[in-house]
């Protein structure tokens, strides 16, 4: 029975099915597999919950430039900043999100909007927060749309229009 369970874990593990590497690359070194390892440790999924191991695997994957891992690591660092565990982590989180934004605009933009609107460890910038919220809302996520509406309501018309224009310009830059 123990052998069957071990085989089941290996066969259905996100690490095992994350992606097929080429024959020169072990599966543990693929960005998706490393990200999956991070999520397993963070959630305690088939392994003991270990936040440090989760950060390690998120970071390993993020360093390859894999946008989903950059966002996962950024969210972990930002949560630490929110909880007062590592307020300086917000700067690394912001930089990771800015790097990931072209590949994952709605998700990265949502977190950037929160960073600039909440001002935890970083100066509040309502106009920049509205710009990123506008980009996030373009992905049609209900939470992003609510954030965008709330942030834009706080701006005077000139600031709102400028934030919208910067969002449009940024999105158009992705198409070029």
From TrEMBL:
<keyword id="KW-0732">Signal</keyword>
<dbReference type="Pfam" id="PF08238">
    <property type="entry name" value="Sel1"/>
</dbReference>
<dbReference type="InterPro" id="IPR011990">
    <property type="entry name" value="TPR-like_helical_dom_sf"/>
</dbReference>
<dbReference type="InterPro" id="IPR006597">
    <property type="entry name" value="Sel1-like"/>
</dbReference>
<protein>
    <recommendedName>
        <fullName>Sel1 repeat-containing protein</fullName>
    </recommendedName>
</protein>
<feature type="signal peptide">
    <location>
        <begin position="1"/>
        <end position="18"/>
    </location>
</feature>
<dbReference type="InterPro" id="IPR050767">
    <property type="entry name" value="Sel1_AlgK"/>
</dbReference>
